[in-house]
Structure formats: structure tokens, C-alpha cells
Amino acid sequence: MAAITLAELANKLGAELRGDGTVEIHSIASMGKAVSGQITFLSDSKYRQQLIECQADAVMLREADVEFFQGNMLVVKDPYLCYALVAQLLDTTPVAATDIAPSAYVDSTATLGCNVAIGHNAVIEAGVQLGDNVQIGAGCFIGKNAIIGDNTKLWANVTIYHDVVLGSQCLVQSSTVIGADGFGYANDKGEWVKIPQLGSVCIGDRVEIGACTTIDRGALEDTIIADNVIIDNQMQIAHNVQIGYGTAMAGGTIVAGSTTIGKYCIIGGASVLNGHIKIADGVTITGMGMVMRSIEDKGMYSSGIPLQPNREWRRTATRVHRIDEMNKRLKAVEKQLAAKGE
């Protein structure tokens, strides 16, 4: 979209317009960087002082912040949500592919919906089903009998293995791999014997997956990701993991096999979740969390020691190594006091 008037924006957002509705907005920016022709937003009242020098043509803000700004404004309940909606309206991101490139390979048994676009050097194998308006970026590989729902977009070099099901309105960033083998082996007197991974991956609707993430297929049953899940970059989702509706997972997180994560969970970046555990609905795990056991109750959980100067960290580490010794000494003292009746 080239430009949109404030009146049109107010109508689309359900916002209250205060000011000149004929002003045209062509992009959105942060308050400190916004200039004429742009709109910005104030989602946290502690930044009210920036409104004084704000050069944007309009600001999205709450009723409580109106008195601190003299220019054009859209009064809304949730400025950050409206920022997301306006960014969608003004999005200039190109399509992943246009039409079907001559260099793309599409097997004759594949089924393509209306308006499908497939980029250069992409491979669509036998039995694949692509829904309406699907975009397959350059260099993608879609394995046999995979199913991709309507309006889903794959950026360049995504690999979708055989039998994977990817829902509608999904977005998969470059170099992600979905459906590779899970880590399954038996041991025969020191020799590793591979266990073929016979399950698949089933991903719901409106799921977004970041770049260079891997989601393994199940050993017997499927790896399952529910609707409305967002998964960041460079993550490992192992075989037979299940992730519930509306969960968000930040970059660098590793989830070991057969772990179940509930609905509306938030997993901070660089966290590690042990295998064969369950995380309840509504759990928040802060960044670099190490989760070794199941979490049964909703709430916020943290682990790890925050960064310290090296000298302090060395003292802390030394004390940690002596905890067992200190515990034995404490119990001995308690026993002596008990014997004396104190």
C-alpha cells in the first residue's frame, strides 16, 4: 500500500480520530525517528516525554496520554496491537515467488490450488498438495505427499520432508527444515542401530516459524504443533514434541523429544527443555531457563545465575561445589544441638 489517510486508518482500527483525517501516512516509525508522512505509537506511558519533540504526522495512543500531545492522533485501547495492524497495512515485504518459475520442478502428480507461486529451482515432489495462494520461495524442497494449506508462504531454501502437513496462513522463514529424522537409535554392543522415524510433523494454521529452525518428525506418532504458535529462529524441536495453541518460543531454544508444552506458554530465548516432560498451560519460562522436570502449575519460572564480575562468579562457583559438605556439617551441628536439648 502506497499511502493511507488518517481517516481510513481510524476506520480500519476502530480508533477515535482527533485531528486532520486527510493527512496521508506512507509508513510507520518509532517516536524518536518518525518524520512527516509517518505514524508512530506510544504503548508505554513512561515515554510520554518523547511526545514533546515527536515529528510524526500522527501518534496512536491511549486516552490517558492524549493531554501530552498536540498533534494528530488516533486514540486506541492498545497502541502496540494497532502498531502491528498498521504495519500489516503498510507492509512492503515482497512476495516469496511470482507465478511458477521455468526452473522449478513440479511433479505431474502434485496438486496445485489457485494462484500458486513457485520460485526458481524449487522442487515439488510426487503427491504434494499445495492450497490456494501458496508461495514457495526459490530453492525450496517439498517432499512426497506433503500438504501445505491455503495462503501459506515459504521463503527461500525451506525444506519440507515427505508426509508433513503444514496448515493455512503459515509463514516459514528461510533455511528451516521440517520433518527431518528425529534422534532415534538403539545400541547393539556399542554399535548404533538407526530407528527409522515413521511418524511425521503436523502443523496447524497461522503458525510462524523462524529461520534455520528444525522440527523433527515423530518416531511412531507425529510431532504436533497447534494453531497460532510462533517459533523463533535457530530452534530445535525434537521428535514427538507437542506444542499447544498460542504458545510463543524465543530463539535458540531446544526442546528434547516427547515433551508436551501446553497452551499460551511463553518460552524465553536459549532455554532448554528436557525430554518426556509436560509443561502446563500458561507457563512462562524466562530466558536461558533449564527445565529438567515437568511443570504442573501456571506461573513464571526461572533458573540460572545472572552475569557477575568474574571474581564474584568464582566465589559463587566455589561455594556451590561445597554445598554438599556444608549440608553435612549443618546436619551434624543440628544433631549435636538436638542431643543437648537446645
UniProtKB/TrEMBL annotation:
Name of the top EC class for this enzyme: transferase
All copies of domain UDP-3-O-[3-hydroxymyristoyl] glucosamine N-acyltransferase non-repeat region, residue ranges: 23-89
Protein name as it appears in the record: UDP-3-O-acylglucosamine N-acyltransferase
Listed Pfam families: Hexapep, LpxD
PROSITE patterns according to UniProt: HEXAPEP_TRANSFERASES
Assembly mode: Homotrimer.
Described purpose of this protein according to its UniProt entry: Catalyzes the N-acylation of UDP-3-O-acylglucosamine using 3-hydroxyacyl-ACP as the acyl donor. Is involved in the biosynthesis of lipid A, a phosphorylated glycolipid that anchors the lipopolysaccharide to the outer membrane of the cell.
Keyword Lipid metabolism listed: yes
Family: Belongs to the transferase hexapeptide repeat family. LpxD subfamily.
Entry keyword Phosphoprotein: no
Example of a GO MF term: N-acyltransferase activity
Listed EC numbers: 2.3.1.191
Keywords tagged on the record: Acyltransferase, Lipid A biosynthesis, Lipid biosynthesis, Lipid metabolism, Repeat, Transferase
Protein's pathway: Bacterial outer membrane biogenesis; LPS lipid A biosynthesis
Catalysed reactions listed for this entry: a UDP-3-O-[(3R)-3-hydroxyacyl]-alpha-D-glucosamine + a (3R)-hydroxyacyl-[ACP] = a UDP-2-N,3-O-bis[(3R)-3-hydroxyacyl]-alpha-D-glucosamine + holo-[ACP] + H(+)
Active site, UniProt feature: H239
An annotated GO BP: lipid A biosynthetic process
